[in-house]
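[Meeting: bench + compute handoff]

Bench side (C.D.) handed over the final construct sequence. Compute side (W.E.) agreed to return the predicted structure before the next meeting so the bench team could plan truncations. Sequence as handed over:
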Amino acid sequence: MYIHLKVKKLRTILNEKEQLVFTLVGLRRSPTLATLCDWFGISCASGSKIFITWVLFLEKELNFLIMFSSLSEMEGVARPKCYAEIANLRAVIDCTELYIDKPSRPSSQRNTYSHYKSRNTFKVLVSQSPICHFNFVSNAYAGSISDKEIVQKSGFLDSFEEGDIVMADKGFNIQDLLALHGVRLLAPPIMRKDNVSACASTVTRRIASKRVHIERMIRKLKSYQILRKCLPLTFKGYISSIIKVVAALVNLQPRIIKIY
């Protein structure tokens, strides 16, 4: 309610509908703030306030679109064939990283440095349901955090029920965390170069063919240009909100897999 009132009290030449469009253009196309404000004929100070206020507002209002539905709630809902054969599948997870400007403090540089990307980043855990929509998006964490740590700290494990299955890449060494909740991990087996069996290769290929869809979902997420650019550190307090708003907007789009 407070955020909604704040939206109405903004004193600019833009009405509420124009402010919403201003924010959506900023998320989708991500021109510079000066360019965006020039398009709408407002000052950069007003534009910055509009963008931040509406992002925080949309995060609250669109939160219902990112629901971690239980298996019973998804019962009877059509699933893609590739997921229908795994009856207790609850989530397909992966992490994605967002580039940020290099911090000035050495300690912050170390915390945000990602060895995988060789850049300073923020890292986000995302989860896709077996009916192909985002059902969980974590807050943004410093890029140095491991996959296991982000699963543990993000609250992702809080809503699981005994017997659920989580599908992940082999880099997610989270069997022990899931076992505490009675949840099973479905991931490709770890193979050594000198010991590759035909059975392990087949299992890896089958899981990879199902996991590819979470990667497609992440590509849709990053079709919003704001998540592909190097984010300024002034966005630090709003990065989590921005990615959750974008994930909600992606959930409004048609499914990535057609169900016949």
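W.E. noted at the follow-up: Confidence is low (pLDDT under 50) at residues 1-11. C.D. will use this when planning the next construct.
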